[in-house]
Design goal:
Order of helices and strands: HHHHHEEHHHHH
CATH topology: Flavocytochrome C3, Chain A, domain 2
Helix content: 40-55%
Strand content: under 5%
Distance between the termini: 37 Å
Radius of gyration: 17 Å
CATH superfamily: Flavocytochrome C3, Chain A
Strand order of the largest sheet: 1-2
CATH class: Mainly Alpha
CATH architecture: Orthogonal Bundle
Shape: elongated
Bound molecules: heme C
Amino acid sequence: MKKIILYSLLSLALFGLPFIAYTSEEYVGAAKCKVCHIKIFKSWSETKHATAFDVLRPGVQADVKKRAGLDPGKDYTNDSSCIQCHTTGNTTMFPGVQCEACHGPGKNYSNVAIMNKSKWNTDPEGQRKCAIAAGLIVHPEEKTCTACHNEKSPTYTPFDFKARYNQVKHPQQ
Ligand code: HEC
Ligand code: HEC
Ligand code: HEC
Ligand code: HEC
């Protein structure tokens, strides 16, 4: 409990509203989703979201960093002002922009009782409702993206939600 309060205060202090509701303890990580969503996992692995943590390492994307007024030689992997947007759930345990950054923290919806193939086949609407009640986001809204794609990003470029949405949609599993 203490830990949860601490995390909440920390996230409140550092990031403001969008991050308050979740603590890193509610995230399970992409490896868990991979077990059942292997094709989507593979296509996601090839996106920049998957490797978004690596750009914080010294020497990586040096030109981009210079242009943004950052120090290309600096190691930013422990810098809390960077990891909030370059990890999932604000923890280096889950580096990069993983599934749950868009689909919601998975602790309560990623179990077989909810994400169950045969139940889903029999009653897709009912099962989807259960999953959503447990925190799943099926269609991410603009505010999910703009929690990171905003002017606080040192390399910010204007964010066209519709165009970008189509870039991150993955093929059927
Ligand atoms: C135990 C296997 C399993 C795990 C683990 C799992 N899923 Fe699923 N998921 C399913 C099944 C089965 C469906 C039903 C639809 C289908 O067959 O694709 C589904 C559906 C979904 C849907 C689509 C819902 C819809 O309306 O069509 C999303 C989004 C999703 N999962 C995301 C995730 C994410 C993110 C994780 C990890 C946090 C995850 N899943 C973990 C099996 C799983
Ligand atoms: C940058 C945001 C983002 C990330 C990261 C992401 N997704 Fe998605 N996902 C989407 C969007 C957008 C859609 C399309 C939703 C729609 O149909 O409107 C989607 C759709 C899905 C669906 C439904 C597919 C279908 O065709 O019905 C599943 C399942 C899914 N994602 C699982 C995952 C898993 C597993 C991961 C991690 C390996 C992941 N997603 C990572 C944004 C994301
Ligand atoms: C947790 C923070 C976070 C969230 C949430 C997020 N993104 Fe991103 N996104 C990033 C970062 C960081 C990068 C840059 C990664 C890099 O270039 O290494 C990025 C890059 C991208 C790119 C460029 C990928 C490429 O290959 O050039 C697109 C498109 C994108 N995001 C769309 C979206 C959309 C659409 C959503 C919401 C559905 C979303 N993002 C949610 C942090 C996030
Ligand atoms: C508010 C969220 C946010 C914060 C804070 C943030 N970033 Fe980013 N970062 C992004 C997003 C989103 C992108 C994708 C480009 C864009 O639209 O800004 C990105 C892109 C980048 C890129 C370019 C990657 C590429 O492939 O071109 C680098 C490098 C980077 N960030 C480094 C950092 C460093 C270092 C810090 C900390 C000093 C930081 N970022 C803080 C969200 C953020």
